[in-house]
């Protein structure tokens, strides 16, 4: 039996509740969305005392299931104003699950500007005053955790971006080396946590592995699934997600200069091959995992040209949105910006898109690396300009009078142009999360459809969204591939874990219900189904390939009906 | 027969269409909302080429009806993202109506940054290149018009705030002295006009008075209505709208320091009596009309202590939102800020509220007059800080992490606290226009209800909204009082004007349909009925009187059903 831990920051009270039966099948996103829907008023301000932030490891997080260490963070988003879940790797999810914590709910708000560290062991949950950590960067907090609690102690923390209440602020999680390089990046979850006065959550003790009801059956599936993943995900292990640089540019879906172009003329300088070479030549690493039990290991440790640590987990989305889409062509420059974002706790995607939009609005020139660095420091310092950029692409674009803002429901799109990758475009348009690839990415070749054509994309996106919400519910990394062929693995894992036999249809129906619950929260927050669309310019402005986004808007608004 | 003039700024083409029969009863807001609903895509960007801005004099504007000189300006709003109508006095509405123009639609967009003056006479409509007027202030444009076209030539223009595409940018209209002191202030209509490359619209020639079908009947009603208004609106004539300072503070509904308090301890220094005394003692004027035929004359000309012209039409909303709500206590200071706003073309209400919210967010201190002046100049210059403030209270508050943002659907509330004036609060919550008093103000004593109690406010607000939309349709100033007892005057005026007999119910039904059409546009723009509410803090944070806003939120979301 697992527990729900509730921390009320208004009176610093910690309470523990047993897991209700009805949450039996829920974990991760399914659980954060359920709790946010039930307990948070859709029309509250995300920073109100009555707003809450929920952490939930996936249903299988803490078990032996491969790639199952994800931790979901959910709240009403200061970026979109709707419900949000952002999930993250790193070492916190597993240790939290193994401390028998089904969900951690942080609610209320201190009356002043106090900061706290929440200390969680297998037997206790305590708040420790930590005002001296105010406005410390994530790497500084990581050092504090190492020196106070021991090297590689799992932790969650927020940087100064969150303390300035930026809507792009992340929740950082320590990686296998104890660095704050894993981020629940999207939707400003960090700002919500910071508004509660929590600077860090530290996990001492290791707890014990989650035991499935049918242990042997579970081990059999795990083994089979792991072998399948190792065999099919080799490119991800070798090149990381940057393997997509060539793929997406060839597909004509790579955003360049604020979505002006769909291909990049300098792909070799930012490709997965270049990234892997730099890592190996300079003493860094590819094939680096987020947590124990990851068999894909798509992460990396990236060193600078002198062989010194520069950043970790330089990913496709960062490379393109903070790089090519801002006119940068140098992987080392992008890596440096990635480090600064991680250190201040800024979502590289929303921040990159906001900077690209600011370039379109004349604040900076495309390709101005020094200017971008200065802007990131303004965000870290919380100047007026920094706070403006920290509201993300939509607010920056509105403020500068930019018509071409590549965002849906207030959230910037990921690094796939919806005109050329129409399944992912459909997910941007319709996901309750806003312009989000992690809500149902339809990568080239994945759906069996012609990505450049509108036919069938609504059904394909809906399938991908449901399978993805299942991954997010189970705590599986989406790189296991939320595709139809993984459903049997999901079904067998859940059946063995719970000891009850489930069908694929039953799991799909669970996923659909989670999506509907999220859409219903949004509706009551004033975000109607008519916001299920991409910005108009994607429908009228052609890519060089001649493509526009042409999925029927009536189908988009009716997708969850 | 009147005409619809269409100016396409993409190719500088002017076309003239005869008035369609179905527009027979429409004018002002009814007509701008109808045309925007029909011709503008709800999901377009307000600054797209396909966005349009519509000017329409009221149905009775240009006739002898008292106080009937209003001109409506409608578009998709860059402030709210929804449909917007903002109407204005000054001399342009009448001359436009008398030039047989039922509506002027400006559409398309020049490819570059060209500026034009649109010259309208009774016989021709022409575009004149005017790049040298770029970023000229409204008073400078007023001087240009006087020197080029003659003293007191009626005109419409936009200031630098509009050219920076600020969402608080106004459309200015010349007053009886030829000064740009009348503003269609709300919703950023100025930015939409500026985005089309139009810097000014100038009306040469006088045209001819609109002739009612039943001329004698019309004259009889006009006389009766005018006598009634002169007798009942004496306080407005004597003190201007500032007569409300004492009334509203006594009611406990005056916003002070970003809606922290409902009464002001220094009312005498900013009251209508003080304003009138300053005007008379210093060579200014009260009892000043917007246009010929106004019998209320609530405007004023305000001189500084040395007797030099400072500003005109210093109004209650400005005095409170740019004054008391920002912690100012000096009428001369407020008058100076009013002049600066008029000159740059900034809505004093949205700007005042944005400044108060910025004070709550720590950018300025409450009462910092010099700081406020500097911020207004930043807005006029279009700096990053100026552009941020120019997005209005909602964006400023979001950016600074302020939880207490007194706005609905992106538009700042007027100078009546919804907790103490619950009918007006209901109008803020439900009007398709956002937090707008001009959409149905329920002033103390007007509804016959206890303003401090929730009972009956939804019905009262709906009535006020329908009567107000009728005023806006007819071109009558809302100071004629959109109350049940004026309906017979409206009915008789319309019946005599059109030559067809209308009942009060028929007119009320017309008004209701206009409101529904606006709400329907908003719905398709993604603004759902669940946004029909005041911000949560008004429901939880008590005024000193103990009052909170407690009108049932389900009734609010269902008001137009």
Automatic annotation (TrEMBL), chains A, B:
**Record InterPro entries:** Ald_Fedxn_OxRdtase_dom2, Ald_Fedxn_OxRdtase_dom3, Ald_Fedxn_OxRdtase_N, Ald_Fedxn_OxRdtase_N_sf, OxRdtase_Ald_Fedxn_C, Tungsten_al_ferr_oxy-like_C, W-dependent_AOR
Checking SMART domains in the record gives: AFOR_N (SM00790)
Task: Give the protein's recorded name.
Answer: Aldehyde:ferredoxin oxidoreductase
Q: Name the coenzymes or cofactors required.
A: [4Fe-4S] cluster; tungstopterin
Give any GO molecular function from the UniProt entry. Answer: 4 iron, 4 sulfur cluster binding
Q: Is Ion transport among the key words of this record?
A: no
**Gene3D superfamilies according to UniProt:** Aldehyde Ferredoxin Oxidoreductase Protein, subunit A, domain 2 (1.10.569.10), Aldehyde Ferredoxin Oxidoreductase Protein, subunit A, domain 3 (1.10.599.10), Aldehyde ferredoxin oxidoreductase, N-terminal domain (3.60.9.10)
- Top-level taxonomic group: Bacteria
**Would I find Transcription among this entry's keywords?**
no
Domain Aldehyde ferredoxin oxidoreductase N-terminal residue range list: 1-207
Q: Quote the SUPFAM superfamilies the UniProt record gives.
A: Aldehyde ferredoxin oxidoreductase, C-terminal domains (SSF48310), Aldehyde ferredoxin oxidoreductase, N-terminal domain (SSF56228)
Gene source species: Desulforhopalus singaporensis
